[in-house]
Specification:
This protein has 120 residues and is α+β, with helices and mostly antiparallel strands. The protein has one domain. 21% of the residues lie in helices and 32% in strands. The chain is built from two helices and seven strands; from the N terminus they run βαβββββαβ. A five-stranded mixed beta sheet has the order 2-3-4-6-7, with helices on one face.
Length: 120
């Protein structure tokens, strides 16, 4: 399991690359995910979307306000341009930021996937 802490992850991602200009924090999209992060990138209209999630039934019982600091099974990382998730942008800055963010999670032994839709 990977420990998702929204504030810490947002702080870390802001410092990963000079291409990352901002990381916004949004509420969970549903019962199975954490707070969502939206990553803004220099020279790109595209953004990256990140959320931790779990397929465990008990995860749905956790209150939204408690999903900012919680154990998760997987990390969704996508640019939101295709329902299959992952990286679909042709913008070089977006691609470089995607790699930096993905590697951040991989280095912390998190399992990164293109989309959580494949699990439900």
């Amino acid at each position: 399991m990977f420990r998702w802490n929204t504030k810490q992850i947002a702080r870390d991602i802001r410092t990963l690359s000079i291409l990352i200009t901002n990381v916004e924090i949004d509420t969970p999209g549903g019962d199975v995910d954490t707070d969502n992060l939206i990553v803004e990138i220099v020279g790109s209209d595209d953004q990256l979307y990140i959320a931790g999630f779990s397929t465990e039934p008990d995860f749905c019982d956790i209150d939204y306000e408690n999903k900012s600091d919680v154990d998760v099974e997987l990390i969704e990382l996508t640019d939101g341009m295709d329902s299959r998730g992952g990286l679909n942008s042709s913008n070089n800055n977006t691609a470089q930021a995607y790699i930096a963010v993905r590697q951040y999670f991989v280095d912390k032994n998190a399992d990164v996937v293109n989309t959580m839709k494949d699990y439900f």
